[in-house]
Specification:
By secondary structure, the chain is mostly helical. It has a domain of 53 residues. Helices cover 81% and strands 0% of the residues. It has 3 helices and no strands.
């Protein structure tokens, strides 16, 4: 009887539909926002250093990799939704 009570305390509260939508929306925006931030910083560094497209290309790939890693972590964290 006591075990049953403790098991009820450990149970996760159920999420509402709005919170599920918020989580999915944030996951959908991770990859594009990371790419845009990478492109912005690469462009600004190119403009400042005068290295034409090289920093933009480098930071595009870094932003893409960062976005993919964040997306995979978020999917693993919220896979039970």
């Amino acid at each position: 009887m006591i075990k049953w009570g403790f098991q009820m305390l450990k149970k996760k509260p159920s999420r509402t539909n709005y919170s599920k939508i918020a989580v999915v929306s944030s996951l959908a925006l991770l990859l594009p926002s990371s790419i845009i931030v990478g492109l912005f910083f690469g462009y600004m560094l190119d403009k400042w250093l005068g290295t034409s497209p090289w920093m933009t290309i480098l930071f595009f790939f870094l932003g893409t990799a960062s976005g993919l890693i964040s997306l995979l972590r978020g999917l693993n964290r919220h896979k039970d939704i």
